Amino acid sequence: MRTTVVSYLDEFISREGETAFAHRRGLRVARWSYEQTAGTAYQFARDLETRGIGKGDRVLLWAENSPEWVASFFGCLLRGVIVVPLDVQSEPAFVTKVQAQVEAKLVLSDAETQPLADLNLPILKLDEISSLVAPHSPAPYSATDIDKDDTVEIVFTSGTTAEPKGVSLTHRNLLANLVPLEQEIKPYLKWERVVHPLRFLNLVPLSHLFGQFMGIFVPQLFGGEVFFQESLNPSRIIETVKRERISVVVSVPRILEALRESIERGYEARGKLEQFKCELEASEDQHFLRRWWKFRRVHRMFGWKFWALVSGGGMLNPETERFWRRLGFAVIQGYGMTETAALISVNHPFKIGRGSIGRVLPGQEVKLADNGEILVRGENVSPGYWRDRNDAKTADDGWFRTGDIGEMDPEGNLYFRGREKEVIVTSAGMNIYPGDIELVLDRQPEIKTSVVIEIQSAHGPEPLAVLILRDEQVKPDEIINRANESLAEYQQLRRWFIWPGEDFPRTATQKIRKQIVAEKVRAELAVPSSSPDRANPLVEIVAHISKDLPSKLDPSATLGTDLKLDSLGRVELLSALEDRYQVEIDEAAFTDTTTLADVEKIVREGNPEEAARYPYPRWQQKWPLSWLRTMVLYFIVFTAIRIMGWPRIRGQEHLRRLRGPTVFICNHVTMTDHALVLFALPWRFNTRMAIAQDGELLREWRHPPKGTGLVTRLLHLLKYFSVVLIFNVFSMPQKSGFRRSFGFAGETMDRGYNLMVFPEGRRTKNGAMNPFMPGTGLLIQELNATVVPIRIDGLWKLKDANRHFARPGEVAVIIGKPVSYSNQDGPLQIARDLAQRVKAL
I want to staple 760 with a disulfide (CB 3.0 to 4.6 A). Which of 286, 634, 724, 770 is the partner? Predict the structure, then answer.
């Protein structure tokens, strides 16, 4: 029988080396085992003890999702320390108000979090926690004097009140929801062995209870793995699901809608959208296996192991739920609030009530008030707010008032109908639920998303639609008239407002901040029509990336000449736009001459042309081809090098203690450079090496231009397959597409391969070394790997004399000392430092 949440750490220890958490950092993936996570938690508990932080003290946890977040969370619980989790996007002013209430003794942050020096508190970098606690023992730490009614955490809700309110949650509250889930899961564990391990992609912040449940507690009940990533871009999510063989995606409704749009855009690009929609409609009552086979193209896109989506943090659009279910995926919804320890009801993955938010969890009582408000009572309900426990929204008989309107069918399935405080009561006494109107509006193809708010008119309260359109040229009145045909007379819209930005302001869980929207709309409607134009939100993103903006941005301003964005800056801008607007953008569309107007069009359409196909082969890394490559290297390539001029090798002693995937960088003289470097390296490096090569050249060989003769085409293909097989090369484009190249480099290192990169980007024309490209600095910074500088001497002299054979030792390969860089080193700084190191060899 569990008495505290800390008891879950016992299961962590029993699972030992199994992977518990994976987190993408830059281009690499860090993986933590259950044992490592528990050990770090024990170490952190001891570190807190040495700092004099104990039971009842508070610690601010303000960081991105990561294994370190989980370890530090449990470390606090072991000491009886109360965790105060904060969204990464929280404003410093909000954090200051929180600190004024909780009086925390320590802040745990990460490299991306705003500085907290003004709080006058000790700050620990969460991404450095492993090294900080290393002096302490990882042996189990006894949690003493911890009771069910002790506070685990204070979660500050994302409300818009002047003073933030912190919900106090105890071990009893959390266990009231976790234990019933655990009991429900146990009968299915025998089937889990068939697909073990279950892998969860958690896209919800751990600072929210839903994120904690699905990121920390529920997966470990299966012995599963949890993958964390910050990017919410649909294409990145789909790539992760397939690459990491994800089983379940945990997200908020908006992300599921964005993924749906991504799939539909793909069919639209092939001219098959209407056919796809017709097939979806026809699949409504078909057997699961038949739907799975009919839409196997989508299942192949995500990978064959992916089968379920878990949605929480908001109401999922019924059409989006039907979309995924018709494709053959399970859609699991839950309902709850922070004050009810995250859950009140949840759908059973194999017994789902369509459109329902699930059945009430065992141990809880739910009833509907006369006005339909959902009332709940049970041990999961919070004892109250921090320092103001009398402010709990409970009636005299102990029922907690959720403020949500719902319905319940005879089978006990609960249905969400809207927020009570958002209900618009007209002068005729009719109740209008904004969610009902928003569902109708969002069905209109011209509307990207919508919000319905209350405004005062001459006839009293009425609804106003705030719209974000896919195309600014369409007429809103035609859209509204069409939507009104599906609404009851008392629900129909007479007024609307076009939102100026590409998206509404949102919380960390992607909920629209309706109060902020309403305040801005009301303020805009109160301003005379002659008011100046609103600022384009795109400008804010450009201003953040560009360091040399002109005094006034014109739509014709180019990314290169006017905005001063080099290739590195364009990658940063592209990534920021993809994450901000949830669209996929072709890198080839971003050049020096691309204008701000072009960028706006690309973002608005969100349907780029097919990207240039640079080859990123993986087949040569699989057995037996990997062994064949090794034999060809040692018996043919290296033999030829010995015959043509045995090179002198210096500096191999620098590699004796070097372990793990490493990046080797070298000056670029001829096309034989990579063979010479491989010859100079020990077995453990050269047999596990991937080499970055001119992407444009590889693409030309793999996909010869139209009109290329048959013989030339065959020769190009022979070159491509020979080079890929023998030297394990991949594309490193010079003009566009290098972001994907960086991602492939990270994946390759995660598979245990070293990398060889030529930072000059091109071969020398006069024997002098070309400047190192800053993109190499960015690659190394993102890989966070050890770098070994190498220099080839004497080869230019042979090339200049057109000699193909050298005397033994005439050519030298000099290996420098390994070097590592910190997060504080910029890409340009890294590139310049490496260039100096190579020159000095």
Answer: 770
